[in-house]
Amino acid sequence: MSRTPTGRRGATLSPRRVTLADVAEAAGVSRSTASLALSGRGAELRISEAVQDRIKEAARELGYRPNIVSSGLRTGRTMTIGFVSDTVATSRLAGDMIKGAIEAARDRGVLLFIGESEGDGKLEHALLQGMHDRQVDGIIFASMYTRRITVPDALRTTSAVLLNAVPKTASPLPVVVPDEVEAGRTAARVLLEAGHREGVHVIGAGPGVRNVPRDSVAAVERLVGIREVFDAAGAKLAGGVRCGDWQPEEGFAATRDLLARTTPRALICLNDRLAFGAYQALGDASLSVPDDVSVVSFDDHPLASWMRPQLTTVALPHYELGRRAVDALFGQIDGTPGEGSVHRVPMPLRTRASVARAEVS
Where is the HTH lacI-type domain (predicted)? Predict the structure, then answer.
């Protein structure tokens, strides 16, 4: 019967881990010199570039990997961070938020632990406690859509960042959110630059900032930006229809009700699902987009590019939000939080085919 490389029947030989002492011996330097060079402190302590290069080359050739556990004992860092969300992780729309955070963490040599509460308060508490039990260096607390939240007590004892969430009461935690006010300005400019100064209605909320769905930060801020640009141009929104839930059926019903009273020249839908419903109501009324009614929207949901005509929309920057949250978190961890506690991420315009120039009467 053949024997394993250990000489013991049924046993396997695990490869020996390359140690810092192995690297030092291969490079012909002391262990402390090798440690300083590989930790990036070589120049600081006047180790020549030639010696540092020799140490790094030895580490590469041997396949040396630093011992994160022992390093963590020295530095107080575990090189892990947590990401706790409500439904972001399983949402196709916001999946890029996770991707951005993962890639930003990977660039720093950090692992990201992800947990999802599905809106369950007990599960959320358990997830946050689990992150603390694993001694993560910090936590990103994320929401699927921008909303006001009560900051969990578990976030008050660690470095943490709120992503797509705004605290209901004053909090020292950094906040990373889309720049919804500027997004509103962008959507308004699209219509004004196409000559639409009259007959513009909002679908989803408004036209005043008080007539919005409860706790909808996006609705309030988008309306602030829209009204600011229209006011500056000496123009005025013709009206707005509040929708309790920004889904296609709500957009359809709101637009159908609007058409029973008047024929708009343009619609600003507060998200793409509402716009999808608005398209159906306009079609049922034998009105064409954009020849009869121009439409501009927000989010850049995947369906925006499948609608016919394709929908002009202001995109939610999910990937950039995830990356920015990791940057802001490490600002907290490293004690260099930077200027301001609210980080607003630009929302880019996706110009497509749903806006036409207004006819001059």
Answer: 18-75
**What gap in Å lies between CA 273 and CA 61, rounded to an integer?**
54
What is the separation of C-alpha 144 from the centre of its chain, rounded to a whole number of angstroms? 9
- Residues 207, 239: contact at Cβ < 8 Å? yes
Min mean pLDDT across 60-64, 102-106, 259-263, 277-281 is at: 60-64
Give me the torsion for CA of 151, 157, 162, 163, rounded to 10°: -120
Angle at 179 between CA 177 and CA 180, to 5 degrees: 105
Q: Name which of 68, 69, 59, 50 is nearest 24 in CA terms.
A: 59
Domains of the chain as residue ranges with CATH: 20-66 (1.10.260), 78-177+318-345 (3.40.50.2300), 180-316 (3.40.50.2300)
Asked if 37 and 55 touch (Cβ cutoff 8 Å), the reply is yes
Question: In the chain, count of helices (H) and strands (E)?
Answer: 11, 12
Q: Write the pLDDT tens digit of every residue in 60-86.
A: 888 877 765 555 545 557 889 999 998
Q: Rounded to the nearest 10 degrees, how much is the dihedral formed by the CA atoms of 300, 302, 308, 312?
A: 10
Instruction: Dig out the tokens for 312 from the structure.
Output: 């002009």
d(C-alpha 167, C-alpha 181), whole Å: 18
* Structure tokens that stand for 49 in this block: 């570039």
Residue 310 and residue 279 in contact, taking contact as beta carbons nearer than 8 Å: no
What stretches of 205-270 show up as alpha helix (H) in DSSP?
Answer: 217-232, 248-259
CB 94 within 8 A of CB 271: no
What pTM does this model have?
0.80
How many whole angstroms separate alpha carbon 191 and alpha carbon 314? 13
Q: Which of 99, 70, 67, 72 is nearest to 83 (CA)?
A: 99
CA proximity to 165, closest of 342, 352, 316: 342
